[in-house]
Amino acid sequence: MKDPDHGDKPSESGASAAGRGDGSKLGPRNGKGKRKRRKSSASPSAIASQPGAAGQAGRPAGANEPEQAHKRKRRRRSKSAKQQAQAGSAAQGGVQVVDPSLGERKGHKRSKKARHRRGLQGRPLTSGERQSAPQRVADGGGHARQASPAGGSQAAGQPRPGNRSEREQPRAPYVAASEPPAPLYAALDLGTNNCRLLIAQPTRPGQFRVVDAFSRIVRLGEGLGASGRLSDEAMERAVEALRVCALKLGARTIRRSRLIATEAARAAENGESFLQRVASETGLELEIINRETEARLAVSGCSSLVDRETRSVVLFDIGGGSSEIAVIRIGDSRSNRLANHITHWTSLPVGVVTLSERHGGQHVTPTSFEAMVQEVEGMLSRFDSPPVEALANGTSGSGFHLIGTSGTVTTLAGVHLDLPRYDRRRVDGLWLTDDEVSAMQARLLSWDFDARAANPCIGPDRADLVLAGCAILEAIRRRWPSTRMRVADRGLREGLLTDMMADDGAWRRSRPRRHLRGSNASGSQEGNKP
Length: 530
What we know:
With about 525 residues, the chain is α+β, with helices and mostly antiparallel strands. It is built from 20 helices and 18 strands.
């Protein structure tokens, strides 16, 4: 069969049928955006022997067709480059500016896809990109910045918005060149049930930003009520947690720290020898504070949760081995330190650990729960405190309320909110009505030990302690009835930090305002947050 234009037409069968021509035509896309050139199975001699087209004398054979196609594409690119250059010269007042990179874009699409696969690293700048590369300039603070092509600036070393790996890196707080870095303060509280550490730096007056925190349940007072001594297992758990605290403190430059131990070390016969062991094995020097100091520190830690309209507050801290209660009467003149307004205080020699060991914490019935409440009520009856009517000063219920700072009240708040996981940000500062507190206590009392342990806001470590704490809370509510209670997820550590910063005048210095740039990404917390 003959083709009137190109001579003999190849057969539809056989090896040459796949080529369907002279081998220079392009096949379909191969799935990656590039056209795949089909190979002809015809021999070179057979291709060379094909006659040329009529009226096209001197046209090369089909074997040179790919080269001709490549030349035509190159001429089209050259023509397009000239047109762009002419348009650019017209826009610039007749001065012709030729982009040298236009003639170097051979295989531009392919190289662009390759860059997408391997990233931008390692790709040399073209001559045009070198001319438009951002230049480093100095800003007013002496920091190197990059001038953007649009006339703006970008901080040197800052990630581009499109660079995901660098964009996800947390940014450190920005401090002006004239501002010295804020000092670090550390507070450690070794209680009957927990070992807690906070490292923070002062920010706005009365507030601080937490740099590092640590908390672990050690149950140092386990078995203390029966034997009067700290057990070897409890001391070993506490020393192990204190080793972690020592590593955290040694990794930073701390300006001032205070490390305290409370009821367990205070009541145990071997409390002093235990602290000597802690000093020799961890290097931490802990001091045993008295109950009055413990009550004042609890008040200092919760001072920011007392509203300006509040006239009086009963603040309680239900601990593992003791419970501190402070009556605060503010009046018309409020001091910067809320602890200065304490008029009455007491420390009950009972906590969640000691009370649950005496009455049983795993299997609690309404009868055993009431027995725990009555025991605490008997201790409170010996506390000389003004009645609620005198505390409220005859005002509405907003003038007086309760503040609870302990694991008991935070657990009640978490159960009330039905949190799938305990969230301090939602619990700290939460208001609970009297009916809500009663409902949560009845709900916990209806659960068995396994149900309490399965709750994410309680867990197995507190499942045998939470109802003992509720019994102490119920006795306090019966002594000082109030329509509302505020939950505080803070305590002695925050009080220690507040007092140390106030004593050093950390908030009185004329320090420029700290600009915490990118605080959400870095996870920094403003205010009294552990």
